[in-house]
Amino acid sequence: LRRHPDVAALTEHYPAASLCAEATIRIRRHLDDTPLALVDFALALQAAAQLAEQTGDGVNEARWQSEAAYAFGAAGSESGAGVPISSLPSPISAFGWNRNTLTVPGMWPGDWDWWALVDFPVGQGGITLVWDGETLHTARTTGPSGKADTTPPLAVTFDGRVQHHNRLQVLGAGEDDFDLRFRGGDGWVFRPRFHPPKS
User: Fold this and answer.
1) Which of 22, 85, 128, 164 is 20 to 30 Å apart from 137, CA to CA?
2) Please, which residues bridge with residue 158 across strands?
3) SS3 for 22-85, per residue?
4) pLDDT per residue over 88-112, tens digit each?
5) Which candidate, 77, 22, 69, 17, places its Cα nearest to that of 42?
6) Contact in structure between 2 and 47 (CB atoms under 8 Å)
7) CA atoms of 9 and 130, how far apart (whole Å)
8) Percent of the chain surpassing pLDDT 90
């Protein structure tokens, strides 16, 4: 809704977004107090506050902005900018972009069996990347993830094997039927395994 504003869609889905924001606030006490968790929490509430502003819901906009500001302050940042991207455990921090070429260095924790970025905005559209532990799978996107409106692959350089697909779909990501898998247009299917968090 933030990327593709539509008054009718916003009106229809804002109650669900509001419920998600309230649930996020309620589970906040169960989160750890690391800067990463606090910034993620704050960014989610900032997004909700932007939707509230678009609908004219000034009360929730103010509440959610206040919660976000408190979390940013607890993380040692006023806007999330004080938490350096390089300190976050994400492959994005080392990405490079130059003349329609995305450079993805293999710099992520060794215990990451897989990761995915779906519809990551880059250049004039987006890209979906899936690392399956052996190969970096890529597909250029121009619209919402999982839709057929894709463009030819973007140039991607990587210190390993790269497989370009005309399309990468995210399947089984529903709340009630969660069975996550990724499927490429050429029949490739990857079902990631999830491990319990280490204590």
Assistant:
1) 85
2) 104
3) HHHHHHHHHCCCCHHHHHHHHHHHHHHHHHHHHHCCHHHHHHHHHHHHHHHHHCCCCCCCCCCH
4) 455 555 677 776 778 887 767 777 7
5) 69
6) yes
7) 29
8) 8
